[in-house]
Design a protein that fits this description.
The complex is a heterodimer of chains A (about 50) and B (about 1150). Chain A has about 50 residues and is mostly beta strands. Chain A is about 0% helix and about 60% strand. In chain A, strands 1-2-3-4 form a four-stranded antiparallel β-sheet, with no helix packed on it. Chain A is elongated. By secondary structure, chain B is α/β, with parallel strands linked by helices. A six-stranded mixed β-sheet of chain B has the order 1-2-3-4-5-6. In chain B, strands 7-8-13-10-9 form a five-stranded mixed β-sheet. In chain B, helix 22 crosses helix 34, helix 29 packs across helix 30 and helix 38 runs antiparallel to helix 39.
């Protein structure tokens, strides 16, 4: 990863049985591609956002 | 620790865009170690004084500001550097609100032109606005860089490089870094620094969901739908300075700049306002007031034995007023009362019987002042009544005293705009009040935002206790079942309701508080239009106004004063008798006999269930007794343990006039002898502290204030030590000193001053006197002045009927718009007739001197219900109908009525259903309805009614008469009053014999197990009753008192709280003529065969209920009055 372009937080759906808390990063990868990844702050897992 | 200061913070006074109260923000700021914090609510300073007062003792400085909305909808943040800046901010906010209430029911959003901001920039520091909607940041966010730069340049031009900053925010949204990079570059090009802000909307993470739901409520959407508009995370919660420094690691200078800027923003709202009231600097005020009072004293006390005492008292008061510099304050009030006198003469007219009444009267502690008495601000002689001044005025007073004035509603309505005219619209305004979230409104608003089923939300709202948010979980369980209530969404609702409880939802005007100033008010506090046309209010409520040291005058509307005035007018109209209430017999035995028997329904103050029960035991015999009586049923005397000793000692004195009242200490006898050794009045707290514990007047007043606010335990402890030591110094034992102190603490200030009680006691007597001697007129006045008092009109009417007062139904041939008294031929005993025949409406065509036509010896006075009582008919239609009848003669037929009165067809149908057309329809209401349905109505045109063709409707087919049930429901559905059978009379035959009536109860021995049933008239759950609920039922013979202990309430809550007709089981208790049923069970009383289909069809549901399924009895029964516990 070359660097972080943006980072943001989504905390939503707290009123449901499956609340959502994620920290997103828009990163520039070593091969020059941009990617959006997030860490699920509830489960601790890392995911790549597609689409 | 970082030096960061939060310069952009919204409180709940941003109204649905801020989730924390200023006090909560103050606490959180102190906890995080902030040295200062700004408050920047949208287009307002509503919460600024609250925050300033809350932060001061915590060592945190409040920076005053506001997020202003510009005309294009974008925002800038304005912060006050000095007093000039504060004045400019107030003017800008006032400007922003101008014209927002042009359509009172549809307020528009405030906004101010940028050019206006440029003109009023002095003394203000401008930040460029928030990330999303900011005048600069918002444009950059949307990629409109040139526009952003242009706006920024205009702002630099207006404020200078010294007082304009580019605002950087980090709400953890996707484009934060890019936006802040662009903004920093723009700042560099402009040569101004950046400043970091947090755009705070909540004081803690737990409160963040409430901010989300506020957005949904504000936009009328659900949480799911409002996702793009919500903040999306919890970054808007107040974070610590270090956390903010970390958040802006890329922009450390912007963090430092917040601290540098804060140092410059030194305007302090708690000390720098510089408010003055008119007359405060008048050097001649002392002399003028003294001259005025001395000349009035000579007149008022001429030839009276109290002249010398009154003179001494006046000089003492004048000396205190001089030392406090308050002469101008009293002269201003006198001036205001003179204005009220002019207004009263105008409103009442010169020939009115009401012209004998004063324009208004004082209430509260000011009634104890002889200066107020002489200048007309009070109508109670403080010398005669031996009223204590110290509560109102003493040398150690630090704030302006309160003078509250009560006016009849009609006079008050005219007086308020007249005050604006007299003192200038720029120098007078009403005080604001804030509608706060209560349990039910919160359940409704948030339930919708959460997307919960509307039916269940409504059921949950109605099952909730209206006050206090602690048991919402249980209410939901009761309403929709524990399993469903346990789901995530419903549990979210529970948390949200608890969080929102007590937070402001929107501003509104205070009932009567006005602020008057020497300098323009819009330089001291922003002014905004009130919902009522022509009225305007400052943005502060009465607490903030008091903190600001504003002179606040309460011009209160008192329903009973209006009713008494109406009653006097009606007596003059109907009987040509002019009553001067100041000269009636104040020792009338008939009046006291009625009071002692608790025959007081409809009179002032002593009509409530609790008062009635007390009256039978205290048996007042004169005005002094009534003064105590009025004050007795208050939380202070009840909690202070004063009630039972007072009642017992009165009883002992009645039985043995030689009985000696016991006092805890001889020093208490002079101050408590009026109340037989009990502390009943608020001023007795002060007098006891002075006489018993040696307090100075100021110390005693301080103790009273500390108790009434119950804010500081430490302060109370210090008072206790001083009190006990002082009392012991005066010879009392520690035990006695502590006992007296505990009585004072129990009182806690929630009681009336004696002066206030004397004023209210007098009105209680006057209204009872009218009830005894002019029953029909008083009933008529009460019906016309609704809503007021403890009982709904239906109960007032039933009780009057039981006393033999005839009440006639509305009638198109005889009724005016309002209820009127008529002279009628006596009728055989029985229910009221549904027609107008046999009655003579008395119109005083030749003025009050003309005698009444008709023989009073063979006639009686009756109350005719007004056509305006029929719900759903427009006021204008009623007015035209009455005018047409009076101008064009009586209506000859239903077709004639329809053709001449220009009422819409649905209004005619409502008249028919209410029975108002029965005199024109031999076949009753169904026939009237049929005929009106086919008659051609006239059409209202600009200058009258375009008559319909005079076509007589054909003969109506034979229609079944309404059954008694149908008629009762039609009555309730149309007027909310039934004049014939009581619902319980109709239900009685189907009830088991064991269910006793109120008349049966009087013949049943005490301690019997009983079953009773009735219409619920009132429910009370006073805070002083430890969870006990009192219900007042009514059946066809009279009232039934129920006492519902807490376990029964818990078990039968829905029936107690919501059912209009109930059956109760319990034990009969009778003591000293007072009968209660202590219940073990309460349940709804159903009548499954209610035939109300027709009523529902004709009347729109909203005419009588917005809440229930219309197929239910409760859809038409009048709602019981609920008097609940707050907190």
């Amino acid at each position: 990863m070359e660097g972080v372009l943006e980072d943001w937080v989504v905390e939503d759906r707290w009123w449901t049985a499956r609340p959502l808390r994620r920290r997103y990063f828009e990163v520039v990868l070593c091969d020059g591609r941009n990617a959006v990844v997030y860490r699920d702050l509830v489960t601790g897992g890392w995911f790549e956002q597609r689409g | 620790m970082s030096s960061y200061v939060e310069l952009h913070c919204h409180s709940s006074f941003s109204f649905l865009d801020g989730a924390s109260h200023p006090v909560e923000l103050a606490g959180a700021a102190a906890e995080h170690g902030y040295r200062a914090i700004a408050i920047t609510d949208h287009d307002g300073l509503h919460g600024a004084m609250e925050l300033a007062q809350a932060t001061k003792p915590l060592g945190v400085r409040t920076i005053v500001g506001s997020e202003l909305t510009l005309e294009d909808g974008s925002h800038i943040t304005a912060l006050c550097e000095d007093r000039t800046g504060y004045s400019n901010l107030c003017r800008l906010i006032t400007k922003a609100h101008e014209g927002t209430r042009e359509r009172p029911t549809e307020p528009t959003q405030p906004s101010v032109p940028l050019a206006e901001v440029e003109r009023q920039a002095e003394g203000l520091v401008c930040l460029s606005g928030c990330a999303h909607d900011g005048a600069v940041g918002g444009r950059v966010d949307r990629g409109r860089h040139a526009e952003a730069a242009a706006v920024a340049r205009r702002l630099v031009g207006a404020f200078g490089r010294d007082r304009f900053r580019i605002e950087l925010q980090r709400p953890f949204a996707r484009r934060d870094r890019r936006r802040n990079r662009h903004l920093a570059q723009l700042a560099e090009r402009l040569g101004v620094p950046c400043v970091a802000t947090g755009d705070v909307h909540a004081h803690s993470r737990e409160r963040a969901p409430l901010q989300d739901v506020f957005v949904a409520v504000r936009t009328g959407a659900t949480l799911d739908e409002s996702e793009p508009l919500r903040r999306g995370n919890t970054s808007h919660v107040l974070a610590s300075p270090d956390a903010m420094a970390a958040r802006f690691a890329d922009h450390p200078d912007a963090v430092d700049e917040s601290a540098r800027l804060a140092e410059r923003l030194h305007f302090d709202l708690t000390s720098d306002l510089g408010y003055r009231y008119p007359g405060s600097e008048d050097g001649s005020a002392d002399r003028r007031l003294a001259e005025l009072c001395r000349s009035l004293l000579a007149d008022r006390y001429a030839g009276r034995g109290t002249l010398r005492r009154a003179g001494r008292r006046l000089e003492e008061e004048l000396a205190i007023i001089r030392s406090l510099g308050l002469a101008g304050f009293f002269l201003l009030h006198r001036d205001l009362l003179e204005l009220a006198r002019e207004v009263a003469a105008e409103v009442r007219g010169p020939a009115s019987a009401r012209s004998l009444l004063p324009p208004g009267r004082g209430r509260g502690s000011s009634v104890s002042s002889i200066v107020c008495y002489l200048t007309g601000l009070s109508h109670i002689d403080p010398v005669e009544c031996d009223l204590f001044l110290g509560r109102f005025l003493n040398e150690e007073l630090t704030a302006l005293p309160d003078i509250d004035l009560d006016f009849p509603r009609d006079i008050r309505e005219v007086l308020i705009p007249r005050v604006h005219e007299r003192y200038g619209r720029d120098k007078s305004a009403l005080v604001a009040a804030f509608a706060t979230y209560q349990v039910r409104s919160a359940i409704r608003d948030f339930g919708k935002a959460l997307g919960l089923p509307p039916g269940e939300v409504e059921r949950a709202a109605r099952s909730a206790d209206p006050f206090g948010a602690s048991d919402v979980d249980r209410y939901l369980g009761d309403a929709i079942g524990a399993r469903r209530a346990g789901s995530a969404r419903w549990q979210a609702l529970v948390r949200l309701v608890g969080d929102a409880w007590g937070l402001a939802r929107h501003p509104m005007q205070h009932p009567g508080g006005m602020v008057i100033s020497t300098q323009p008010l819009n330089e001291i506090c922003p002014i905004q239009p009130a919902a009522m046309t022509g009225r305007q209010m400052v943005q502060w409520d009465k607490e903030s106004c008091a903190d600001a040291g504003f002179l606040k005058i309460d011009l209160l509307g008192l329903g009973m004063l209006s009713a008494v005035a109406r009653c006097v007018d009606e007596i003059a109209r109907a009987r040509a008798e002019w009553i001067d209430l100041s000269r009636i017999d104040y020792g009338d035995e008939r009046v006291y006999s009625e009071i002692q028997e608790a025959e007081t329904m409809g009179v002032f103050q002593i009509e409530s269930r609790a008062q009635m029960q007390m009256l039978k035991r205290t048996r007042p015999e004169n005005l002094d007794d009534l003064t105590v009586q009025v004050a007795l049923v208050r939380p202070g005397p009840i909690q202070g343990g004063a009630v039972h000793p007072y009642i017992e000692r009165r009883k002992a004195l009645r039985e043995d006039p030689a009985y000696r009242v016991p006092y805890d200490h001889p020093s208490l006898e002079p101050v408590l002898s009026d109340t037989l050794g009990a502390i009943v009045f608020q001023d007795q707290v002060i007098e006891v502290a002075m006489a018993f514990a040696g307090f100075s007047p100021g110390e005693a007043e301080g103790l009273r204030r500390a108790m009434s606010r119950a804010r500081s335990e430490a302060a109370m402890r210090s008072y206790e030590e001083k009190f006990v030591e002082g009392a012991m110094g005066g010879g009392a034992s520690r035990e006695v000193a502590e006992r007296v102190y505990s009585q004072i603490v129990g009182f806690s200030g929630f009681g009336f001053p004696k002066a206030h009680s004397a004023a209210f006691g007098l009105l209680a007597y006057q209204s009872t006197w009218l009830r005894v001697h002019y029953g029909p007129e008083l009933l008529c006045a009460l019906l016309n002045e609704q809503p007021m008092g403890f009982y709904p009109p239906d109960s007032l009417v039933h009780e009057a009927q039981r006393r033999g007062i005839a009440v006639l139904p509305p009638c198109v041939l005889g009724s005016a718009a309002e209820c009127r008294v008529e002279l009628v031929m006596p009728r055989p005993a029985g229910p009221a007739s549904d027609d107008c025949s046999g009655s003579t409406s008395l119109e005083m065509v030749g003025g009050p001197e003309q005698s009444i036509v008709g023989s009073r010896g063979s006639c009686e006075y009756a109350v005719r219900m007004g056509l305006g009582y029929i719900s759903g008919i427009r006021e204008e239609e009623v007015r035209r109908l009455v005018e047409e009848r009076e101008g064009g003669g009586p209506f000859r037929s239903l077709a004639d009525l329809a053709g001449r009165c220009s009422a819409q067809r649905d209004s005619l149908e409502k008249l028919a259903w209410a029975g108002a057309c029965d005199a024109l329809a031999a076949g009753g209401r169904r026939e009237a309805l049929w005929t009106l349905g086919v008659a051609a109505p006239g059409v209202a045109v600009a200058d009258g009614t375009q008559l319909a063709l005079p076509l007589e409707a054909g003969e109506a087919p034979a229609l079944r008469e309404l059954s008694r049930w149908e008629r009762l429901l039609a009555d309730y559905g149309s007027t909310r009053v039934t004049l014939r059978e009581h619902p319980m009379e109709l239900m009685r035959p189907d009830l088991p014999e064991e269910i006793l009536s109120s008349a049966d109860l009087e013949r049943t021995p005490s301690d019997s197990r009983v079953r009773v049933a009735g219409l619920v008239v009132a429910r009370q759950r006073p805070a002083t009753a430890h969870g006990v609920t009192f219900m007042l039922l009514e059946d066809e013979h009279g009232p039934i008192n129920l006492i519902v202990p807490p376990p029964v309430y818990e078990r039968c809550r829905l029936a107690v709280r919501a059912e209009p007709v109930v059956e109760a089981r319990g034990k009969l208790e009778r003591r000293e003529g007072v009968t209660n049923v202590v219940v073990t069970d309460v349940r709804a009383l159903h009548r499954p065969d209610l035939p109300i289909g027709e009523v529902r069809h004709i009347e729109p549901r909203r005419a009588w209920s917005t809440e229930e399924v219309a197929g239910d009895l409760r859809a038409v029964l009048p709602a019981a009055h609920s008097f609940g516990r707050r907190g």
